[in-house]
Amino acid sequence: MHDQEYRFDIQVNWVYPNNGNEVQSALKKLRADNARKQVNKQNRFATIPARLWEKFLALASINASRRWAELSNQDIHKLKQELVNGTYTIQGKTTYKEEFVTCGGIPLDEVNFGTMESKEVSGLYFAGEVLDIDGITGGYNFQSAWTTGWIAAQSIANN
Fold it and tell me: How many whole angstroms separate alpha carbon 12 and alpha carbon 7?
């Protein structure tokens, strides 16, 4: 990335390991089974959050309020392409350090911070950004990841 000055195109399969044929079939099934429902209300791909689903619809030039029955085969194909082979242009790093992490994750009240073990599932440990910790960018999230990783590793090693 450095050699390209952080300017390049990237392709992402958001529903891996599904391939294009599987996704196209799933989308056609959604159209058949949910003909009267709006496309933004029905998302067969559980790993895709609702807001991201709406972004894919927009990228495929599909109005989110349309009904599944109104989608043509070309619309289905465009949506499949976004899901399986979305292409995005990276245009470099920002000068204002706007590279943020996402928030959310395992609620902190479900974790023993002395060991990083789950309070809900014995023997399950968490570290880093899977935890619901937000911080100012600039290394704080790295420090949290390193510290919680170290605590978890020590706890596991001592058991």
Answer: 16
